[in-house]
Amino acid sequence: MKKIMIAIILSVTSLAFAQKAPQVQIEQGTIEGVLLSSGIQSYKGIPFAAPPVGELRWKAPQPPKSWTGVRKATEFGNRPMQKPIFSDMNFRSAKVSEDCLYLNIWLPEKKEKESEKLPVLVYFYGGGFVAGDASEYRYDGESLAKKGIITVTVNYRLGIFGFFSHPELTKESPNHASGNYGLLDQNVALLWVKKNIEAFGGDPNRITIAGESAGSISVSAQMASPLSKNLIAGAIGQSGAMIAPTERVVPLAEHEKIGAAFAEKIKKGSLARLRAMPADQLLEETSKWGVFNTEATIDGYFLKKSPVEVFAAGEQAKVPLLAGWTSAESSYMGFMEGQYPNPENYVARLKAVFGDKAEEVMKLYPGSTQEEVIASATALACDQFIVFGTWKWLDAHRRTSGQPVYAYIFSKARPTVPGEKAKDNMPPALPGANHSADIEYLLGNLTTNKVYKWRPDDYRVSQTGVDYFANFIKTGDPNGKGLPKWPVSKGEGEMSIMDISVQPKAHTEEHRERYLFLDGYFSGKK
């Protein structure tokens, strides 16, 4: 009897252990993840491509190697090569390395008799294409997995490792292209998800891509790329598009010259010598001021033409798009460049920036009082930084895709941090949600950010935002039970914009004339 009881106990213990260590068979082999206390399964550090090291530095991502036995998928993979640039980035990965092409998956709790394939979200991090990592707390996929969505976060190469062109690279490439390696990493990750997500219970035909800042810019680029546009069912962009002035896209010939000049500048003229450089030494060289700019290129392979041309021609992914920006992407200081925000200084700045168009700009962005200057300089800083490009993306897509567009502005400011003060006796910036502040809210990850003392209003806004996102990922429409109606925008005319705030409400866009002026100004039509 005693032996029977011991056997039962061992059997129960083994069963519990098995439940805590779920396994999935994917193309490369078997992986073992973790069962979280919430019932969500997580699989971390899954290689979706071969390590881009040695001779694979500056090559399109290659297939990952298979393995025998069970591979542990319990720790995040290495983060891409980068310097500690942004103080709000908190990583869970162990170190930086060129060996960085890994993704992470959060899988909803399985229900009995559940047979329907689940929708999938693939999320690209921000960081100006020079920093960031899929392990950041604010991108954690558990909250959206609780909504029945398989959530994937993806690493991609950054800086010179991800965006370097050179004549020798173009010559050796079977695609006669070089420069967009970070974007190709994202594409190959999408292909990996397409091939493998059914093993996790996902629907390979219901993949939505999303991202914030550089991640949002990436979403627009993937929609414009012939390599990716047929892999996705929907797109979400949080602040950013690959449209000037937000993001310059350089012709390949120009990008090659920039790369060759960099190689000569650091006395490593040949490709072989550049590849032989230790990764940390290469990173150090490109981190010097003015030495290297991280830019995408029209390489003839990933991008046949600039994204703005693709969207204008209606050649992009024909999928629903949800995108927007925060209410205070930048402050008035971003436009005034240290000058006190009085009318005289404002006029001087307008003339310096816009030349003979300054008077026209003054009509759209008035500044006859200090209060007006602060408001208009803030608007100009935001528009030039990231708002106009995002608006242009939305506007072009609704006119040429035949698909629904949902535009938003996120205006819930984070709680005030004690001790925060205006700098150099300058007037305070306008209140609002600053760049990247929406990430924790809209992905349901407020509790991962310990800097702020979140209040009930913050959690209410977060719940609303998560519900909108979840509905859109599932159906292509953010609307659902208990949520304020979010009007769709299609075709011509003014867009409807949803203000995601304590009291969410939709309104007609207020500043279309500003954006139309900037559109003409930046495209050189005026």
UniProtKB/TrEMBL annotation:
Pfam families: COesterase (PF00135)
Signal sequence range: 1-18
Location of the Carboxylesterase type B domain: 21-512
Entry's EC annotation: 3.1.1.-
One Gene Ontology molecular-function label: hydrolase activity
EC main group: hydrolase
Keywords for the protein's UniProt record, in alphabetical order: Hydrolase, Signal
Recorded family membership: Belongs to the type-B carboxylesterase/lipase family.
Protein name: Carboxylic ester hydrolase
